[in-house]
Each structure stands twice: as structure tokens, then as C-alpha cells.
Amino acid sequence: MAAAENIIEVTGLRTQFGRQVIHEDLDFAVRRGEVMGVVGGSGTGKSVLLKEIIGLIRPAAGDIRVLGGDVLNDEAAMRRARESWGVLFQDGALFSSLTVAENIQVPMRERGGLSQALMDELALMKLALVGLPANAGPKFPSELSGGMRKRAGLARALALDPDLLFLDEPTAGLDPIGAADFDELIRNLQQSLDLTVVMVTHDLDSLVAVTDRISALVDKKVVVGTMAELMELDQPWLRSYFHGVRARQVAGMAAPAS
Ligand SMILES: Nc1ncnc2c1ncn2[C@@H]1O[C@H](COP(=O)(O)OP(=O)(O)OP(=O)(O)O)[C@@H](O)[C@H]1O
To answer: Name one GO molecular function term (predicted).
Structure first.
């Protein structure tokens, strides 16, 4: 079998804020077409890792490649990469003064070259894609439920038909049923749109339902594997994270039928 292509490749990453070292010689890779979960204790630098990959924070050292391009040093590679991804950060981060449809059209406007009529049509398509009714388009974010706002944020992340989707705590703040529905939506979209997904989450149900592999941030580095593989490791944080009663229940539910 041919080796899977890495759509993201981070090597030798060092992140430091003042004297606080967050990542030290960290390697992280994501294969095209997989859903990679990112977990780790509070403050281990999960969100910062995402922000470094998308160019919002510059690391102290290391190499970051997206789609094979050196996004830290090559502006053209960064432009190409930026056009290839969509991002859903916590809370959906919608502009409260814009309607949902206008929010979805923000990335389209930034790219330019599309008529308003086409953008209106595209916004309707994106709403349908994430399971929102057409009448959500003219509403303001404050008029939607938390779950609907997340979906609207996802619709905006999908505005430019990305190959790559970054999700930071997508189910945070949702009730268990809302979170399970959102997990299912992500998995369905990943398959139907052939997306690669990088998802920071604390939610074990999401990890089981959505991810193919998991990167755990421990000791300033990444440990990567399937959930079953990580559960086997004798590392204190991983043990307490995966071996709690709740974790065992979730993992038991996920065990393949044999
Ligand atoms: N721009 C910044 N300047 C200074 N310190 C920062 C900055 N961004 C993050 N940090 C620090 O880096 C560390 C990692 O932050 P990050 O938000 O990535 O954590 P996290 O793993 O996502 O945690 P949590 O699960 O609590 O959200 C924290 O100690 C945070 O205070």
C-alpha cells in the first residue's frame, strides 16, 4: 500500500511565550482524508498548535507544511493553504451584526469575484449542507440556538469548499444530543465532501464518533495513535484521561463487533 499523503506536516516545533515553553521539538502530521482529534490537558497548547498551522501565531522554531508548501516562509504557499481550509473556532465566532447569510458570505467577499446573486445562492446551499433551514439565512446569530449557531459557523467554514477543516472544541456548550447530532454532521460532511479534519476536543464521545486517529499533547510533544493504541500507553495523563469509568464506557461502546 502506498504511504498516505500528509496534508499537514509539522516538524521540530517550538512554541514559547516569555519563559513558558509550550511545545518543544514537537512533530505532528495529518494524512489526507482522515479526521485527526487533538487532545491534551488544559494549557498544553492545542489551540495554539492550530493557530500556528493557520498562521495566526508564529512559532519560535520549526517547520510547518500544508499541502506540501512551507507556510512559515513562503507567502504563495500560505495563500494556497489559506484557500484550502475552513476554520470553526469556539462559539462559531460569527459577526453578531451580520445575518447568518452575510456571515457565510464573508469569506466569499474576501476572495472576491462573485456576484451578490451567486453568493446568495451559495449561502443557501451551505445552509442546507449543515442542516439549517433557508429561513435561518436572514436571521441574526442572536436569534439562533447554540446548536444552530455552531452549524452557521460550520457553514461559513465551508463557504469556499475547503479540503481541510479545523475545528476547535466544536461541541463545547452543546447538550449531549446536540453534540451527538453535530458529531454525525461532521462525519457525514467529511465523507461526502472528502474533507480532512483536525479537531481539538475534550469530548470523548466526539473522539469515538468522529476521529480516525488522535494526537495527544503530553510533555510538550505529540503522541499519536488510534484511541485503542493510546489507551494501551503507560503515560500518566493518557491513563487518567482514557481510563476513567466514563472513558471505558465510551470506548466499550466504540469497540468493533467481532
Ligand atoms: N498569544 C498568547 N500569548 C501568550 N500566551 C499564550 C498565548 N496564547 C496562548 N498562550 C498560553 O499558551 C498556553 C496554551 O494555550 P492554549 O490555548 O493552546 O491551550 P489549550 O491546550 O487549548 O487549553 P484549553 O484546553 O484549556 O483550551 C496557555 O498557557 C496560554 O495561556
So the answer is: ATP hydrolysis activity
Provide ipTM, 2 decimals: 0.96
The alpha carbon of 9 and the centre of ligand 1 are apart by a number of angstroms equal to 21
Which class is 34-45+86-253 in CATH?
A: alpha beta
Phi, psi of 202 (to 5 degrees): -100, -5
Digit-coded pLDDT (tens) for 20-45 = 999 999 999 999 999 999 999 999 99
- Report the nearest-CA residue for atom 16 of ligand 1: 45
Cell of 25: 521539538
Query: Tens of pLDDT along 233-249?
Result: 989 999 888 877 566 66
48 CA distance to ligand 1 centroid (A)? Answer: 6
CA distances from residue 208 to 90, 101, 171 in whole angstroms, order as listed: 20, 32, 13
- pTM of the full structure: 0.91
Find out whether 222 and 26 touch, Cβ atoms under 8 Å. Answer: yes
Q: How far apart are CA 138 and CA 140, in angstroms?
A: 7
What DSSP designation does 73 have? T
